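Subject: Interface between my chains keeps coming out wrong

I've been trying for a while to get a sensible model of this assembly. When I model each chain on its own everything looks fine, but I need the whole thing in one frame so I can look at the contacts. Pasting all components below, labels as-is. Any help appreciated, I'm running out of ideas.
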Amino acid sequence: MAKIIVVTSGKGGVGKTTSAAAIATGLALRGNKTVVIDFDVGLRNLDLIMGCERRVVYDLINVIQGEAGLNQAMIRDKRVDNLHILPASQTRDKDALSAEGVEKVLDALSKDFDYVICDSPAGIERGAQLAMYHADEAVVVTNPEVSSVRDSDRILGLLSSKSRRAEQNLDPVKEHLLITRYDPERVSDGDMLNLEDIQEILAINLIGLIPESEAVLRASNQGVPVTHDMKSDAGQAYTDTVSRLLGEDVPLRFHEYQKKGLLSRMFGGGRR
Amino acid sequence: MSLNVDRAGSAFTFKGGMLPMTVMELISADPERIREQLAGKLSQSPAFFQHTPVVLSVEKLDEPHLALERICAVCRAHKLLPVAVRGGADPVKQSAWALGLGWFPPQEERTRALESVAPSAPAEAPQPTPEIQGAVGSRIHRGTVRSGQQVSAPDGDLVVLGAVNAGAEVLAGGNVHVYGALRGRALAGIRGDREASIFCHELHGELLSLAGNYKRLEDIDPQLLGKAVQVRLNDDQLTITPLV
Ligand SMILES: Nc1ncnc2c1ncn2[C@@H]1O[C@H](COP(=O)(O)OP(=O)(O)OP(=O)(O)O)[C@@H](O)[C@H]1O
Ligand SMILES: [Mg+2]
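Reply #2:
Try treating it as a single job with all components included. I did that and got this:
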């Protein structure tokens, strides 16, 4: 039985797709048979970040509507053996996503895979609720700003009332906080919320902290999940996150602001 | 929110307030059926029917025209005073006004207007029932109350073992105790109990309300923010005192 993990946030553009791709890649690199599903019907971009947009033939909606089999629609990752991508439809209406259809697909995938990662659309409406409904665990992606924290809080409320686990009175969805786009310098300047404040408000377990990083943009332009870029801070931070998801105890990195010395301030320029 | 009239000094002043109000949710529009049920209730709990103001909610009804005048007459005959109608189509609104009653938009719409993100279905919306509740129904909520969630104990004290986050709402007929940070809205004494208090470990509340009187975050002395406090009612004024 696979573990189903939803990557969700409420607020848009905080790094869900980046994180879903990076986490799925990291899990597969560690030998877990993993599939990552794009639930963002109409705005698909997981395939871009995974670098497989040219190989998309069928999508999730085709499978749900019986027009293609799962094995036809799933795309094998070129770089990592155990990794598959199930793309979303760019053209279909998002109402084509039905609760029964999603359930059927997830049930079938659960038999074959160790991990099913669901990349949720933004918002708190149907699409986001369908993506989270079957989750065993949730990675709640949050940026260090008030509106993102508020939306994450809202999503956590929905996870505890509108998920299958909540409705059937099972053990609750295991919730993890993933802080992304963390810029320690701006945090220390007081422009952004700090780690402790976010943790205090959301009151859930911190699974990782991804710094604001140019490596992410580079990676998404190249269609290579940033986890492959182990020289980069973001690549290392996602790798740490995956280790923690697998139950390992890894110390937190990249959250402290290293004040630049006088020389580097004079010669190294100011902010990135 | 309703408008109170204060007769001291100038002819009047307008005040914002939140009065506890019984909502009579109509499931049938038939005045005869309403009469029968009211007669039954009146004999069970006569204490409740003392010209009690009620808001007639017609949201659950799917009828463009209602025998509103007859329904009101039936209510008055049983010592209930309809003061307003909630929901219904335009003809309902017009006849409410013609009868001198207020009209409120359906609850759904109102919550949507009040909040940027409407709770899709408040798990525990407060439903003041027309019966008088004798028993003290206190409630303990474990864990954080999150944005968009509402937790209520209409008939007793509410104890929250955790924080009440911004965008969340906690309500109680009695006291509200928050063993954590209060960042959302807290309403105590929602049925008019002026002795009710709000207690919290860390005050940041968006709104504090006691028996319909309220203070918003911006009305609170900044010195008190972040403190452990008790909020109580003193002559229609909310007083906040640090707990030592
Ligand atoms: N750690 C990071 N450092 C810098 N840029 C980042 C980081 N994480 C994400 N981004 C950038 O933020 C933008 C949004 O990221 P992404 O598409 O992953 O967000 P999303 O939550 O999936 O958005 P949507 O809600 O639209 O689905 C992208 O341009 C991405 O490159
Ligand atoms: Mg996305």
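Reply #3:
Confirming on my end. Residues 31-44 of chain B form the longest helix (14 residues).
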